[in-house]
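User: Could you write out the 3D structure of this protein bound to pyridoxal-5'-phosphate? I've included everything you need below.
Assistant: Certainly. Input first, then the structure.
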Amino acid sequence: MPFQKISDWLEYDKNHLWHPYTSMTDPLPTYPVESAHGVRLKLADGRELIDGMSSWWAAIHGYNHPVLNAALEQQIQSMSHVMFGGLTHLPAVTLAEKLVNLTAKPLQHVFLADSGSVAVEVAIKMAIQYWYAQGKTKKQKLLTVRGGYHGDTLGGMSVCDPVNGMHTMFQGVLPRHFFVPQPICSDDGENNIEAMEKQLQQHQSEIAAVIIEPLVQGAGGMHFYCREYLQQLRVLCDKYDVLLILDEIATGFGRTGTLFAYEQADIVPDILCLGKALTGGYLTLAATMTTAKVVQGISADGSGVLMHGPTFMANPLACQVANASIDLLLSSPWKAAIEQIEKQLQEELSICQELTIVRDVRVKGAIGVVELKEAVDMKTMQADFVAQGVWIRPFNKLVYIMPPYIIKQGELTKLTQAIYKILKRLTLNAN
Ligand SMILES: *Cc1c(COP(=O)(O)O)cnc(C)c1O
């Protein structure tokens, strides 16, 4: 046993292991987790934290769920993985059938990718191949809005917000796409759609697709906008002959109050990306879905080969836990649970509005956001939250929560109270 004490392996972690968006030479502190159960993370020193993050939108049923555990245990008895080239299996086919039935009727075809970023890459390739096979070889650009987040691989990054997404650092390798201002939702009906139309008008011969996160821009800034924008965007994409890719990797599986956010705008995308909550937070898996129209288009030049095929494509364990997670969600009162969380977040976070350091408080579905005027000191605030017995990870100016759907009223109150308490203390210190 190389590591006798917690402090030993924490030290090794610090010296050798990269964490998301961190420095190896000046690492942020990390908290050792021993186990997780329901909405609680148990730290190695025995402390328990109530989880406000669902491990980045994913663990919607909480941790260590007996039904999801059983699905994996059962699948592991028959096979953990086989290549998907030339072989197929029931876990994948069952998942495809579930996804086709759950989503809008035209979305009939499924590509099972290994992470959200890869699902976005596949979506981009589908769009480009769709036009290419029909002789429109110049349509290779994407159009998107500022403030978006679509993943960390180069293709995904190229459509992330140019500033948040560090486009300057990678300018030599990132393809250049078209950007328009972020959608807004003002009382007078202004929503910034005109800029979108202008770009489509000017560049439709170069644009393969528009890619956007519907209703909620997640990691790019936790920004919400109105359904009318999406409705107008759908019309514009048809008018200018451009495909519409909706990235529901964060919003999918109930988070915004409907199973998928696009339902609230009553539109259907040409390509849909799903991920994160797909496996209930158990394993990495994502899906890119599309329509018969896109499938036909890709095949228009007679080859029809979609140029993608990861080693771990359609991993049976991941598929089977996804199947169990979807069944669990659909058999639970998820809609009422999210409505309850939404109502409670609205009631309990609104008092943050009175703090002078707070710019905005907003809630949508099971997402609560307190936006500050200045960026927070993440290290200090993270420690403060842990001291309060909650797991909330702020970034930049945002303190936000998206708890597991199974969270109880009293547990959610612990999260909102911790936010208020810490922000209030920060306000007092700032004065
Ligand atoms: C998280 C996320 C991704 C990337 O997913 P990974 O699994 O982290 O690669 C892409 N798009 C959106 C909207 C996301 O929230």
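Residues 355 and 428 are 9 Å apart (CA to CA).
User: Perfect, thank you.
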